[in-house]
Design brief:
Layout lengths: L18 H6 L5 E7 L14 H13 L4 E5 L14 H8 L3 H6 L4 E4 L3 H9 L4 E4 L9 H8 L3 E4 L11 H19 L6 E4 L8 H9 L12 E2 L5 H6 L8 H13 L4 E4 L2 H15 L3
Parallel strand pairs: 1-2, 1-8, 2-3, 3-4, 4-5, 5-6, 7-8
Length: 286
């Protein structure tokens, strides 16, 4: 699906160091497209692990209007079953394709919790770090990001699911800790984006609560990224496989946008961008 440019939404611009800031100043949320070069990601594992297929997928997302391409070489699937891989394995998957994806011109974020992998990706031209453990797993990642001066997505996560907790209170505690780590390392606060981690360490109910109460994270004064694409909570409401959850993903992302999310991370770029543009056009008529 090709999304034609909207006259009310300026283009993303280049993939330079201020690319994210430019995106965050636009009236619509930026759309981050998922590019998994893994054999075991929950939705599309193995589909794009071949370098040629990954590059084809990146080109297709750019044609659909993607603002950021988020490339990951380790499955961090938000349910049990993800197989941890070494930095060497991640790098082996990234090396044949990353520079070519960066060369396409869209800003690229590196989805990794390992400083060694993030450093390689930044050397290859990636512009954003995306850490699914919010700077709390690899002690070298925050100093690296501070030294490079790049933006970072700090995601909430948990080792285990606890249905009894207030998930928003847990997020606030987690983010305070992450922000302390960032400050101690010297990461500029205006380089930080928060991600509630929909599906990660959460029940389906908690994921929906996180979306419903997203505005409570405004207390941090930081932009919010939401990635609800194809997540299991959708199937808990309307039984479906990951590939059958486009409509539910769009519903969740429109609600996230209404509650202030500035970046939407999705597998389905063109469809999501169309939904955001139509919703924005309708709301502008009020």
């Amino acid at each position: 699906m090709n999304a034609s440019p909207s006259p009310s939404v300026p283009p993303a611009g280049s993939a330079g160091p201020d690319a994210l800031r430019t995106l965050l100043e636009r009236p619509l949320p930026a759309v981050m497209g998922v590019l998994n070069i893994t054999p075991d990601s929950f939705s599309d594992g193995g589909a794009f692990i071949a370098p040629a297929r990954a590059l084809e997928r990146a080109r297709a997302m750019i044609a659909d209007g993607v603002d950021i391409i988020d490339i990951g070489a380790e499955s961090t699937r938000p349910y049990k079953g993800a197989r941890p891989v070494t930095a060497a394995e991640e790098l082996a998957r990234l090396k044949p394709v990353l520079a070519d994806v960066v060369a396409l011109g869209a800003p690229v974020s590196i989805d990794s919790m390992k400083a060694e992998v993030v450093a390689f990706a930044l050397d290859q031209g990636a512009a954003i770090a995306n850490d699914v453990w919010g700077l709390q797993r690899d002690p070298d990642i925050a100093p690296l990001i501070a030294a490079r001066g790049v933006p970072v997505v700090v995601m909430h996560n948990r080792d285990s699911v606890d249905p009894a907790i207030d998930i928003i209170a847990d997020m606030k505690t987690f983010f305070r800790h992450s922000l302390d780590i960032a400050a101690q390392a010297g990461i500029a606060r205006d380089k930080i984006v928060l991600d509630p981690g929909i599906g990660f360490g959460k029940t389906a109910e908690q994921s929906m609560t996180a979306l419903a109460r997203l505005r409570e994270l405004d207390m941090f004064g930081l932009p919010i990224l939401v990635g609800a694409s194809r997540k299991r909570f959708i199937g808990s409401v309307s039984p479906s496989e990951p590939s059958e959850r486009l409509a539910g993903s769009i519903a969740a992302h429109l609600i996230a946008a209404q509650r202030g999310a500035k970046i939407i991370r999705t597998h389905d770029v063109g469809e999501t961008l169309q939904a955001l543009r139509v919703a924005h056009a309708i709301e502008s008529k009020q």
